């Protein structure tokens, strides 16, 4: 047995014992070689059957009809239609993609089921052996419907309308999967429509912008010894998720030694791609964004991401057989901080062609500087949001609702024209409607009052609950929670179903003494944030109602701030944008039983 000891020849009856030199071993794990067979011999390519992927006529139609920078996943869509045996197909597009609806529909109708009939299944063979009629598999799409209602986001997926049209499957384009596929009434397919952009131009714009700024600061400070580190949170809409990840990687790989012009660089980037689960990394919705970016340990997150990139790079090297480069890759460590490095700034870099999604990130992270790259105009602009003004407007609406609730009594008697109706006390929405119709020819102008315990007459408090019916915007489970909270406080509620919410429509229902005094809308939180001050009565989001009822302590919204110091304090705390986040409160879609999207009972 070799015990690691070398025994030389005897010399002067002495034995010299020398330990064997320790050898450092490197374990290299090689992936299995990829098969050299052609695509034609494979049954599937990335889950797509070969008869679809290798259909030359189909690929030519896609290339000549649809833009090459847009990934509509036609092959995947046809495969899903065929697997589902769907013959009645519905397509749903956001406004910006409706121009391609007819072309995509024509391609699907032309090429779905466009292949030789497959062998008979065992069931079909049994029918055939018994001389019975074999039910043929579908061979073409019989009807294709394009849904024309406005689509603002993935929450507007309209599987209910598609089912009403008799469709077997709905394909929703342009958004991520917000409503779980297990909760839709027919099979649905989400197509993100990824858009390929010039990532190199995006990265160059970011580099040049911060290098020019640092160059100017150095001129003022007259210092050239330190390196400014820019910590960047790179995000965007779902269409640019691949570009977001690639841009962050390129910024992290930026060589700080020299610039492209041979000059000493003054800026180093440390970039991460934050995530608000269950959304994709870097994805931001108009109502959901990663929060707490100002306090993240970006150095640790970036270092962990760097280690993953190095492992991936090492695996690629060993797979290609270039083992001599492995040691250099494994020894490369970007965690070391340069002497004199200073964290200069933390920013958000956002990839989108508009402000709506970026505003969600700015609302919940108000202290970070925001830069938006427009991939169409190829411009990098700095964006700002008046967070303090928005918070004051929302605070006023919450305080007004709280005042209305506190002035309303939970024990009252229904009266008409100042009279008391005695035992005729309406207990439901139908009772209220019938009572008004029987006693008043003009319900909206009619005045109804109640008599409190002190004999005084006070206007009755009625609060409206709007459930959005534009696709799946409204969540019945959140409706149950909101209604239970109001009922517990003795507040009469009226449920209204609306596909779109306009000030003029709510004004009609809020007019007169018997009108609805305040609303809570379960549709889109940004409707209250962006447009709430245009309504004649308070229109709250579910989160704001929880604050108004004291269920959530949010001092940043309720603190009266008039001087500059208070304003600065308000800016340090963001307004929550977590409507589709796993970490949201009971007012969000993925909290507890809300994710089931079913009416619940919260009565004590």
Write the layout of secondary structure elements.
Blueprint: E1 5-6, E2 18-19, E3 44-45, E4 48-49, H1 50-53, H2 56-65, E5 70-71, H3 74-84, E6 88-92, H4 101-111, H5 122-129, E7 143-147, H6 159-164, E8 169-173, E9 188-191, E10 194-195, H7 199-221, E11 227-236, H8 241-252, E12 267-272, H9 298-320, H10 326-331, E13 341-351, H11 356-364, E14 369-374, E15 379-383, H12 387-407, E16 414-416, H13 429-439, E17 448-451, E18 457-459, E19 462-468, H14 476-488, E20 492-498, H15 503-510, E21 518-522, H16 525-531, E22 539-540, H17 542-548, H18 555-558, H19 564-571
Parallel strand pairs: 6-7, 6-8, 8-9, 11-12, 11-13, 13-14, 19-20, 19-21, 21-22
Antiparallel strand pairs: 1-2, 3-4, 5-10, 14-15, 16-17, 17-18
Helix pairs in contact: 2-4, 7-8, 12-17
Short précis:
With 604 residues, this protein is of the alpha/beta class.
What can you tell me about this protein's structure?
Helices cover 33% and strands 17% of the residues. Residues 1-16, 33-42, 333-339, 409-429 and 435-455 have low confidence and may be disordered. The strands form seven sheets. The chain has a five-stranded mixed sheet, sandwiched between helices. A four-stranded parallel sheet has the order 7-6-8-9. The protein is of the alpha/beta class. It folds into three domains: 39-195, Rossmann fold (3-Layer(aba) Sandwich), CATH 3.40.50; 199-385, Diphthamide synthesis DPH1/DPH2 domain 2 (Rossmann fold, 3-Layer(aba) Sandwich); 388-408 and 461-596, 3-Layer(aba) Sandwich (Rossmann fold). The chain is built from 19 helices and 22 strands.
């Amino acid at each position: 047995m070799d015990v690691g000891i070398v025994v030389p020849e005897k010399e002067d009856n002495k034995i010299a014992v020398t330990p064997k030199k320790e050898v450092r071993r490197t374990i290299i794990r090689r992936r299995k070689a990829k098969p050299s067979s052609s695509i034609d011999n494979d049954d599937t390519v990335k889950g797509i059957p070969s008869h679809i992927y290798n259909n030359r006529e189909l690929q030519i139609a896609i290339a000549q009809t649809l833009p090459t920078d847009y990934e509509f996943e036609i092959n995947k869509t046809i495969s899903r239609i065929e697997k589902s045996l769907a013959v009645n197909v519905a397509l749903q597009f956001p406004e910006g993609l409706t121009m391609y609806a007819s072309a995509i529909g024509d391609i699907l109708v032309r090429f779905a089921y466009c292949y030789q009939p497959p062998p008979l299944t065992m069931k079909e063979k049994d029918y055939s052996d018994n001389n019975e009629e074999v039910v043929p598999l579908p061979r073409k799409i019989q009807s294709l419907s394009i849904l024309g209602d406005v689509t603002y986001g993935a929450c507007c997926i309209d599987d209910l309308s598609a089912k009403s049209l008799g469709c077997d499957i709905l394909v929703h384009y342009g958004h991520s999967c917000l409503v779980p596929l297990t909760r839709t009434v027919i099979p649905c397919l989400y197509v993100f429509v990824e858009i390929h952009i010039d990532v190199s131009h995006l990265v160059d714009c970011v580099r040049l912008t911060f290098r020019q700024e640092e160059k100017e600061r150095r001129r003022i400070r007259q210092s050239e010894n330190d390196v400014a580190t820019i910590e960047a949170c790179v995000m965007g809409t779902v269409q640019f998720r691949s570009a977001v990840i690639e841009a962050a990687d390129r910024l992290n790989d930026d060589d700080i030694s020299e610039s492209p012009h041979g000059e000493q660089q003054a800026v180093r980037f440390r970039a991460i791609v934050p995530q608000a689960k269950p959304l994709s990394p870097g994805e931001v919705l108009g109502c959901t964004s990663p929060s707490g970016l100002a306090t993240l340990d970006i150095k640790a997150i970036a270092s962990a991401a760097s280690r993953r990139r190095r492992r991936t790079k090492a695996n690629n090297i060993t797979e290609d057989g270039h083992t001599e480069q492995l040691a250099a890759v494994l020894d490369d460590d970007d965690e070391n901080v340069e002497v004199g490095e200073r964290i200069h700034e933390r920013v958000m870099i956002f990839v989108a062609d508009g402000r709506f999604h970026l505003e969600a990130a700015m609302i919940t992270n108000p202290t970070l500087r925001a830069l938006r790259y427009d991939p169409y105009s190829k411009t990098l602009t700095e964006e700002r949001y008046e967070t303090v003004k928005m918070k004051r407007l929302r605070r006023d609406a919450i305080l007004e609702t709280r005042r209305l609730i506190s002035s309303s009594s939970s024990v009252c008697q229904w009266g008409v024209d100042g009279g008391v109706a005695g035992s005729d006390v309406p207990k439901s929405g139908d009772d209220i409607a019938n009572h008004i119709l029987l006693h008043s020819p003009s319900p909206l102008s009619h005045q109804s009052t109640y008599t409190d315990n002190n004999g005084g007459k006070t206007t009755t408090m009625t609060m409206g609950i709007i459930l959005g019916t534009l696709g799946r915007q409204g969540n019945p489970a959140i409706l149950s929670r909101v209604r239970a909270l109001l009922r517990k406080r003795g507040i009469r509620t009226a449920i209204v179903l609306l596909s779109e919410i306009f000030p003029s429509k709510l004004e009609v229902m809020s007019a007169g003494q018997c009108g609805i005094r305040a609303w809570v809308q379960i549709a889109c939180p940004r409707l209250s944030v962006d447009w709430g001050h245009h309504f004649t009565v308070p229109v709250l989001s579910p989160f704001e109602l929880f604050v108004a009822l004291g269920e959530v302590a949010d001092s940043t919204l309720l603190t009266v701030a008039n001087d500059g110091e208070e304003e600065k304090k308000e800016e340090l705390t963001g307004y929550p944008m977590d409507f589709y986040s796993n970490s949201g409160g009971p007012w969000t879609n993925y909290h507890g039983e809300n994710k089931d999207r079913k009416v619940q009972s919260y009565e004590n």
